[in-house]
Amino acid sequence: MTALLGRARSVEPGWRASGFLIDDAAAETDPIRDIFGCPVLFSLWRVRRSWLRNIVKKCNNIEVQRELFKRLGNIVHGIWGASDTAVALEQLTQDFVDQTAFMEYFKSHWVPKIEMWLSTMRSLPLASQEASGAIEAYHVKLKVKLFDDSHLGALRRVDWLVHKLTTELHSGYWLDRYADECDSFQNVKEEYIASTSWHRALQIPDSAVTLDDKNRLFAKVSSQKDSSIVHLVWNPGSEFSFCDCVWSMQGNVCKHVIKVNMICESHQGYQPSMSFQSFKELLVSLSKKPMEDSISQDLSMAWTMQMLEQIRNLVEVTRADDIGTVVNNLPLQWASRKGRTGVGKPSTALTLPSSKRSASRQKTRKRRRLSRLT
């Protein structure tokens, strides 16, 4: 990871990570915090996607699919309660004993390490559904670039895969960052934002969503293209909501689920999002630090004030009509990308060998060519 950070800063010396998302419960978080110096969050996207894809694939009955996915979500939601995971898993096995294909998959792949996964979810802040939608859109974008090739069989070769990663995926990432920072190539940025489920959910009017206020078992979302089509979202208000649209049935986070959960946030009786719940539990745990431990107390106060400031900025951005006014009031004023990359550059003539000087000159020429396009 140190080499990764060095590689990023060799292109942009002022680069730093705002946050680091992991989706593997076995990942070590301390080296990430030490090297990148940023918060580490856990993303439910991989877990949710794996469970939903296998439920749809191995269970034929739509009602069984809905209930099974809901029960798995209840097990995850129970990490902050007094529920016994072993008892919940045993009850799940008994209730769905006839779903042999899925239960064999779940017992072999997840049950042996389920405590590790739940413990990681409990100890780390959880990323929101907006983050899951962004990860999913970027994942789809990478797959399109990687597999849109006439030499698909060559990807089994390591040299061809490395070539694909370094020439197309890596350059595409820096082009996206340049477009975002310099307001250039607006179509690149807009196409990516429009591809996220979160952005598509914002295009659905509130009037298109109908909640089951009696039992709160489902919600209906009317299609904007064809009013005769109505999508049913089971278990509304949860990250483990189940929609019957094609995109959701492939294991993805669809716009209907996100829109329904947005509506449920403003209605009483629905459980809060897991990201909010994890943030609440984190604040509670910080407040319980022993008063006699001055170091822990100071660290807790620092974390609390930092999170409070982030919440205030987020609320201000959400309520503001013009995001430019909010950015101008922030204490840190960003310069242009060219100015930031020019500051602190090492003297290549004195410290770099000839090969590295040549590589540095090539990078400089590439950046100049890119700037001329704008």
Automatic annotation (TrEMBL):
InterPro entries: Znf_SWIM. Coiled coil: none annotated. The keyword Zinc-finger applies. Residues 337-374 are annotated as: Disordered. Residues 358-374 have a biased composition (Basic residues). Residues 228-265 form the SWIM-type domain. One of its GO terms (molecular function) is zinc ion binding. Keywords: Metal-binding, Zinc, Zinc-finger. This is Putative Zinc finger, SWIM-type. The lineage of its organism: Eukaryota, Viridiplantae, Streptophyta, Embryophyta, Tracheophyta.
